């Protein structure tokens, strides 16, 4: 066989492309991290803030010459919030990528199966009944949001699979629409019953990266690690799902089990992110889509690169949310949509659609 | 399982078969108790009018769809086997494929290696070599770096066949592989499949609409109508004018080519000459504006 190693060159090119996009993502995340440490509403000299972070990461190397309060602002308020943006943005974008792969639909997002509505209902219930104050990692608002998200997605899956012998993705999506409407109705009913808490409910829905020390970052980090590893491992299967259920089956893939595994992982990731930071819109939709337009159609690239780009995007948006109208804070969901939508249109117009 | 065979049974050993296979969509029976056995190395073409159940039979043989009855491969039922085990035995080319947007040709062919890879593994160098060899086999190596959705219909169909070849299954099942190909590309594709079959002793089953091509390439034809097999044999047995007229409601003539091949040629039904329409050159202005009668 005269198999000239054309393909070997091509695969190496693919790997080089993945590596260079990962490098670009890491660089972007690092750059925004540095800028975010430097800039903040409280007047701390930029150089000192950076030195403080370096000192904390490698104790004893530099002295930031900051007061104890300033040190605490940098290390216990500013830095965990930056990392929270990284984790939430990465989780939302990579699970959005997974949903788009599972549903073969570039318009799928992490909230497709009712997660947002379920979490919204859970959180609203706790806020209205006054059981939680939205602070602390084990606050009832967060636990109820997490539980509501998982109940909603489990309900969607059950209804969607029971309702269709062929277990097509269409019936799942329709079940998601129905479940989301149902939970939104419940949420609205509970919300309007108590006018005193409407603004708090509203703020929760718009999303926020407010932290109480390091607890949020600590709680979310294991989810992020688990999600990025497992979804990356399943990215070859996402490529296989691209040829449709029937062809993927004939190529030896257990479509139902693969889809369920990906949905479970992505839903857990989304529920965790939403429980901590509310319903931040747009990240899970536009980041994977943008990565697909820039870096190609293989989920082996889209999944990990989406995590990094989603992280960078949300960190950048939070930078704006904290500083644009300082000392007031713009809800993060407003910023993601305000900058995300035009950016997305720009990407669509300047990139050759395959 | 007892795998011992008598020497004279080797050549007639069933590669794939089904017994009493039935498929219904609602109350409509699409397949009504079909039984079939295809020996190793045979090329079987399934013919029949639209809605006869050809594709449904083929898909059931692949293991797709909801069917009752039994499908066997190399004498063993496929019930209870995994998708992966089935894919190692049967490569399937569906009539219309879903092409993922932006997927390079080489990546697409590599999808065929999935049954041989462990779930979390990536393609090895040998998978890549097999994918390349498959592309060479369909004369499409030069397309390796192109994107699937940028190919012409003929190129694309060859690459889909390359993906099936890369699957390295002893059975190759194709559903109307000639749809949307011109006559030259139809012949080219069938020749490629025949070459492959001779090279690695594939068993080939395909559904085809073109009866002349079906007769020329296949060892055996199965004619289906209304979910049942109505004729089974060589081209000369099955391509009978009366039978085709009855099953297809078609007017055909059966010719014999220079090499003895059977050619099925459609013929227009005789019709009366068109009566000249009076006043055709000067249409009446008053009636021209009238609404047309339905």
Which secondary structure elements does this structure contain, and how are they paired or packed?
The complex is a heterodimer of chains A (354) and B (294).
Chain A lengths: L5 H33 L7 H12 L10 H35 L12 H15 L10 H23 L6 H24 L5 H9 L8 H19 L1 H7 L3 H6 L4 H23 L5 H13 L3 H25 L8 H19 L4
Chain B lengths: L13 E12 L2 E12 L3 E5 L6 H9 L5 E6 L2 E2 L5 H7 E4 L11 H6 L14 H13 L15 H14 L4 E5 L7 H18 L2 E5 L3 H7 L2 E6 L2 E6 L1 H4 L2 H8 L3 E5 L5 E5 L18 H4 L6
Parallel strand pairs in B: 3-8, 3-9, 6-7, 7-8
Antiparallel strand pairs in B: 1-2, 1-4, 4-5, 9-10, 11-12
Helix pairs in contact in B: 4-5, 5-6
In short:
The complex is a heterodimer of chains A (354) and B (294). Chain A is mostly helical and 354 residues long. Helices cover 74% and strands 0% of the residues of chain A.
* Overall morphology of chain B: globular
Percentage of residues in strands of chain A: under 5%
What multimeric state do the chains show? heterodimer
Taking the sheet with the most strands of chain A, its summary is: none
Average of the residue pLDDT scores of chain A: 88
State which percent range the strand residues of chain B make up: 15-25%
Across the major sheet of chain B, the strand order is 6-7-8-3-9-10
Task: Please give the largest β-sheet of chain B.
Answer: 6 strands, mixed
Alpha carbon gap, first and last residue of chain B: 68 Å
Mean pLDDT across every amino acid position of chain B: 88
SSE series of chain B: EEEHEEHEHHHEHEHEEHHEEH
- Give the fraction of residues assigned to helices of chain A: over 70%
- Poorly predicted sequence stretches spanning 5 or more consecutive residues of chain B: 1-11
User: How many beta strands in the DSSP annotation of chain B?
Assistant: 12
> What helical percentage do the residues of chain B reach?
25-40%
Largest inter-chain contact set: A-B, 35 and 47 residues
